[in-house]
Structure formats: C-alpha cells, structure tokens
Design goal:
By secondary structure, the protein is an alpha+beta fold. It has one domain: Maf protein. The chain has six helices and five strands. The longest helix is centred in the first third of the chain and has 17 residues.
C-alpha cells in the first residue's frame, strides 16, 4: 500500500481463516477478506478498512499455510514441476456506513522441478511456514522456484495492487 501512496495502520483481525469445502476458491478468499475487514471496522467509528486473504490451489485442492516443516516440504514437492493458481481476495469497508466492496484476483504460476535439497534448504530457512502454498515469490529461494506467471505478480506476493487501487478509487468516489 505504501507503493501506491496510502497512509495506513495495521490492525489484525480476530477472524479465523476457515475454508469452506464446496465453495469456490474466489468465494472463499472474498468471504474471509470481508470478514477480516468487518471485524476491524467495528472497532472504529469511521475510516476505510481493508482485509485480504490468499490461497494457493493445485488441481482443485486448496493449499493454505503449512502445518510445520513436514507440511511445507509436502506442499513444495506437490507444486514442483506443475502449475497452480494463486487467489487473493480483498475487501474494502467504510467503517462509518458499513458499505463495502470485495474482489478476488487469480494468477497462474508455473514452478520448475525442485530438488529435495532445494526444498529442505528453503524450509529450513523458516520462510515458507507462514505462507499459503509454503512459498513466497518475493523470497530469495521462492523467487527461483517460479518459471513464469500469467497474471498479476503482486497477487502472488499476496496483494493485487493494480486491481485494489482501481477498486478503492471507485469505492471512495461512490461514497462521496
């Protein structure tokens, strides 16, 4: 958000990121992002609140954050040499009125084949343990795992800036 000139404060929500099976990935991330934004918005009498959530989907299977090192290694082995989708949902809520907008953005990512040594080395760094799909494209190792992407790079990082910026402009214009 700093990249697009916004001043902001971070306030974590108390929302549990619960995925609902049978719900599309896009709907899951939009729902969770909106729940997070509404949870924080109720703490303030006015202001714009943003919530977001990101998941990785491999062959119709949602990969959230890994449970420990073994879970991260399993996820990375499953992604090795394949393509997957990254979905990020974001929600914008006006704390004063309760008005909101939510969107989901999808980006396709192709991983090259990863060696066991690369996977264990990356997991040992601790970096993938708090990331959906057990990798960060912005990380040193995570960056070299990716052969190419189709869609928004910033979405894979975890927040689709261009799409958010347009939605925020429309939202705030409609509030006036």
């Amino acid at each position: 958000m700093k990249q697009i000139g916004l001043n902001f404060i971070v306030r974590p929500s108390g929302i549990k990121e619960t995925l609902i099976s049978g719900e599309s990935p896009a709907k899951n991330v939009r729902r969770i992002a909106l729940a997070k934004a509404r949870d924080v918005a109720k703490r303030f009498p006015k202001g714009i609140v943003v919530g977001a959530d990101t998941i990785v989907v491999l062959r119709n299977r949602i990969l959230g954050k890994p449970r420990g090192r073994e879970g991260a290694e399993r996820m990375l082995r499953s992604l090795s040499g394949k393509s997957h989708d990254v979905f990020t949902g974001f929600a914008i809520v006006d704390a004063g009125s309760g008005a909101f907008v939510s969107r989901a953005v999808r980006t396709r990512v192709w991983f090259r084949r990863l060696s066991n040594e690369e996977i264990s080395g990356y997991v040992a760094s601790g970096s993938p343990l708090d990331k959906a799909g057990a990798y960060g494209i912005q990380d040193d190792f995570g960056a070299v795992f990716v052969e190419r992407i189709s869609g928004c790079f910033y979405n894979v990082v975890g927040f689709p800036l261009a799409r958010f910026h347009r939605a925020l402009q429309e939202f705030t214009t409609n509030l006036e």
